[in-house]
Specification:
Elements lengths: L1 E13 L5 E13 L3 E5 L6 H9 L6 E6 L2 E2 L7 E4 L11 H11 L4 H14 L15 H13 L5 E5 L7 H16 L11 H7 L7 E5 L3 H7 L2 E5 L7 E6 L8 H4 L3 H24 L1 H4 L1
Parallel strand pairs: 3-8, 3-9, 6-7, 7-8
Antiparallel strand pairs: 1-2, 1-4, 4-5, 9-10
The structure holds adenosine-5'-triphosphate and magnesium ion (MG).
């Protein structure tokens, strides 16, 4: 079963000087329900644009986005979105930030807070429920954002470079926590407010479907079932697509030196490297 599909999707923008710019060109991509897909590509190639199309925040200039087989019109209500910049509200406590999606969805405060408390325990932040975001470290903020997203409990999770601002150790820890969360969370359990989403999903799934954007190839291989490489823009296309045949659960501390990991890294880097070089060549300050 396909959770989300881009069928010959292109997206054009108008630059401030009025000229047209094709960001994505003829992208066809289907993501199996319950799988973890990573998308890599050089800076500015169109990764966030692709996620925005999957989220229904942007409409395609050509082609169709389908969710559970149905053309997407408006927001993708089967998905949550972890944006490139975290969007915690500075005037709300950690607990209120985590509960926000539920309270906005009409869940009574007491229920929303009880569930936020359970999620804060799950991400190891129960002692920080009354803190404000400015009182947290970068890694802790990311944990709050993960709890904020996963509490909403949709079948598809869109993640845009969620850990790129973190130091290498915190980042690896967050990657492990994400995998654990994904591997141990069945998709869309039976609660009243997601009945509509469950109905739309039509069949039970074991895991949520994740589309994870990163510029870091190591991170992509370490986490995903499949890695897709986008070319440098303009008119970015898919230039490689590889399955990651590494067993789960994965030990991220050890994985990166495993021969199968290194082989796949080499194969994908050969493609990505070309695109990174091409994207740097296209930048005006490099050309000058
Ligand atoms: N709203 C917009 N209006 C005009 N151009 C846009 C708009 N959004 C994106 N673009 C252009 O589309 C291209 C792709 O942008 P996008 O943000 O998707 O890239 P990205 O791969 O996510 O980059 P990064 O790795 O730096 O986050 C860029 O050239 C960008 O300038
Ligand atoms: Mg981006």
């Amino acid at each position: 079963m396909i959770a989300i599909e881009l069928d010959h999707v292109s997206r054009d923008f108008t630059a401030p000087d009025g000229r047209g710019y094709r960001a994505l060109d003829d992208i066809s991509l289907s993501v199996a329900a319950g799988s973890f897909l990573a998308i890599v590509g050089p800076s500015g190639c169109g990764k966030s644009t692709l996620l925005n199309l999957a989220a229904g925040l942007l409409t395609p200039s050509a082609g169709t986005v389908r969710v559970d087989g149905e053309p997407l019109t408006g927001l993708n209500r089967a998905a949550t979105y972890m944006f490139q910049q975290d969007a915690l509200l500075p005037w709300k406590t950690v607990r209120d930030n985590v509960a926000l999606g539920l309270t906005l969805g009409g869940i009574p405060n007491a229920d929303a807070h009880a569930r936020a408390a359970a999620w804060l325990t799950r991400v190891g932040l129960d002692r920080f429920a009354a803190h404000y975001p400015s009182q947290l470290s970068g890694g802790m903020r990311k944990r709050v954002v993960m709890a904020q997203n996963w509490i909403i409990d949709r079948g598809i999770v869109l993640m845009d470079e969620p850990f790129s601002a973190l130091d290498v150790h915190t980042r690896q820890q967050m990657e492990s926590e994400l995998l654990e969360l994904w591997e141990n969370t069945a998709d869309v359990p039976c609660t009243a407010e997601n009945a509509v989403v469950r109905q739309a999903a039509r069949s039970p799934r074991s895991h949520k479907t994740i589309i994870f954007v990163t510029h870091d190839l190591e991170e992509a291989i370490a986490l995903a079932d499949e890695v897709v490489v986008l070319s440098a823009g303009p008119a970015a296309r898919i230039v490689a697509r590889h399955q990651v045949a590494l067993e789960r659960p994965r030990d991220l501390m050890e994985l990166r030196t495993a021969p199968a990991f290194v082989d796949l890294y080499r194969a994908l880097w050969a493609v990505l490297r070309e695109e990174v070089v091409r994207s740097q060549r296209n930048m005006p300050h490099v050309r000058a």
